[in-house]
Specification:
elongated, mainly alpha, 3 helices
């Protein structure tokens, strides 16, 4: 069961990495609408990875309480940790691209509202 949980987590991590790589490419190509298409899918994957992490911890604790040597899973769990770090690093790269773009849009909106007397739209009745 531990092996299957780790395998499922690794599959999800790889899907997340691919999704983030597509996000980075879409941002570079100014295809921002495609980012929204993947957001809910990524959110589901994040939630599933979190749930599986909790399940994995419970499984390991159960094996330890049963007196089993959990070191036999060490290599797989270590690899899982490496992949999670890699995912974190890739996500950090995405954030380093997204945050400046977000700031740029915020500044544009602020300039527009400032030039319009504090209102984004100048409504005439």
């Amino acid at each position: 069961m531990i092996e299957q949980t780790v395998e499922t987590m690794l599959e999800l991590i790889n899907k997340m990495k691919e999704s983030i790589k597509l996000d980075i490419e879409d941002i570079k190509q100014a295809r921002h609408e495609k980012l929204l298409d993947r957001n809910s899918e990524k959110e589901e994957m994040i939630n599933e990875i979190s749930s599986l992490k909790i399940e994995l911890n419970k499984l390991i604790v159960e094996k330890m309480k049963a007196g089993e040597d959990v070191n036999i899973y060490r290599q797989k769990v270590d690899y899982l940790e490496e992949e999670l770090r890699s995912l974190y690093k890739l996500n950090k790269e995405l954030a380093s691209i997204v945050l400046p773009v977000q700031q740029m849009y915020k500044e544009i909106v602020e300039d527009l509202t400032k030039n319009n007397g504090g209102a984004l739209l100048d409504v005439k009745a």
